[in-house]
């Protein structure tokens, strides 16, 4: 049987035949009518609920995903956990300070590791999280050795590699380990205001992911105001991008803490800087600009429980030209916030539509990120969920 081409109903009929079950016996075991089975097998009636798909699969003694012509992919979870453990091992090596042998690997020049770090950033921003998890262990070893050999030239790549590690680990649901990576980034950056501000972006993410909202706000504001230009109009785009991104982080932390007034003030301050930077730039890998600030307003509104405002702002923000210029990772992460807002508003259909768009833009955001899988499970359980989304949930082993 070519399972990838047959519709679901035909697969049901195929496996029912393989199990030597008549339509009536099969219907009795399901607690359905023979007419219901016949309509399913002819494609007149869709199997569009996770619970029904699983019941049918149970009676047929097959995995539910087989009905969709795919392999179950809890491998996504296994792959994610394995990636986290590889990064944990890399952060636990301490080869340089303990003078351990590098295992025969040469010490690479700073310029070469800088190019590797740039490649890792691009891979992360394309939301290829499993690939980044593969790259990071050796990349961290390379930048640490390069920094030991040439501290001045390899300092920036070292900080940037730790930033990537922290962001990825937050995505993969390992905030405690992400905290270690972010802390190392800040420590390595000490003495350079721009580098400290860049590292503080990830530190803010980690603290928020750990529900340390007040600490996050305090930390990122301190970094923001250290790099803020005396007059916004005279600020350079790179420093405005860092300062504005940190203000956004502070606003999201304030939203988590329930401080509505601070949220509005901080995002308005960030918007003034974003207007000077414009959309379509990615200074210090922040993606900062007017559209990024508007997306932050959506996230803050959703965090504050104002789902109607969040949904309305989402529709306007994603209609902007700047939306298309943001990295795939940034857009897909925002779509999770928007899906959450739709759910809060009692609109699972809207949430499902947004999640499918996120899966189109950056599949790993749904398939490898715990927050994405959780949202998918919540939407797929609703009787009105889109059939395509239900199929995706079953394929991923999510119920």
UniProtKB/TrEMBL annotation:
HTH cro/C1-type domain: which residues? 12-67
**Domain of life of the organism in this record?**
Bacteria
- Give the matching Pfam families: HTH_31
CDD domains attached to this UniProt entry:
HTH_XRE
What name goes with this protein?
Helix-turn-helix domain-containing protein
Which species is this record about? Micromonospora harpali
Taxonomic lineage of the native organism? Bacteria, Bacillati, Actinomycetota, Actinomycetes, Micromonosporales
